[in-house]
Give the backbone structure.
Amino acid sequence: MTEGLTRRQVLVTAGLAAAAVYTFDPHEICCGMSADAQTSDRELFEVKKIGDGVWAAVPAARYKTNCNAAIIETNDGVIVVDSHSKPSAAAALYKEIQGLTKKPVKKLINTHFHWDHWQGNQTYAAANPSLEIIATERTKENLTTANSGVGGVPFIATQMAGLPAEIAKLKEDISKAPDAATRTRLESNLAQAESFLKELQSMKPALPTRTVGATTTLMEGGREIQLHVLGRAHTNGDLFTYLPKEKIVATGDALIDWMPFLNDGFPEDWIATLTTLETLDFTQIVPGHGEVAQKSQLVFFRGYLTDLVGAVKKASNDGAALADMQKKIGDDLAPKYEKGMSKYPLGRYRDRIGQNVEMVYNKVIKKA
């Protein structure tokens, strides 16, 4: 049976006292949309066929971001990789899946513990009480441990604690909107924020029922699915889902189509993990966010991380202050990476380069 937590258990686990006084640190927002960004007024996914019985589900922009999902059909069921930021998003995709096949979703794979990749688990668990939810051992530990980062059961209460102020700010912005178009966008985002809060308040998290500590091969209804544990990257528990016959890999946020979020990551290990991933024979990537990509995206993304770490090390050796590093490195790397890392309204180069520099400085330079 799927492990579920009641609303009371969520709050107890998170710590009500801490939640009551919590205010968001902007460094913690891995997937937040700007308040006046243009977003869809409902949960929408573009489901793209990328192989025989394999689809990528790419979400429309929402005020509370959803991740991509991979959908893998077998002879007797369906396997889904990642479940988005909320049950309603997972329900919207589940409806799309039912339009593809009436086979049950038998397995759900969580690539890591961040909020926008697992908070929809309960939708699939409710649809199939025998659902198997798979993650790495470290991801399950992170999901149930306070202060693991931007995800897990404790982070649900953190989000609930921060949303009232966020909602109040949206209302204030609406009252000051300079034009009708801006007001309409803000009103849509306000409705989404209020709806998200209600979902969090009623959430019954479904946790992994099976963990893997090393690379594992599943033979599922005539299809070979490899679950690769390659090392630390975006988190300490990233899981890569690889289909060797179809030459497709789903990476979670260890490989995405916009700027990386480094706060829970391991910059130097991340580079090494991507190098190991590159040895697999694949041609298509279902990234954690952004469009389906070719293998060349791995080279580009790893190149950014490599150049970023190298630049921070050099600037530190030269005695530069952090603020100076952030400006200079941002400008120096822009010709090579800004365009490719700024294709979406979220995770753009200039929005995140300063934070990335700071994270590398803290995790690589200060730690050493």
In short: The chain has a mean pLDDT of 90. The first helix runs from residue 7 to 14.
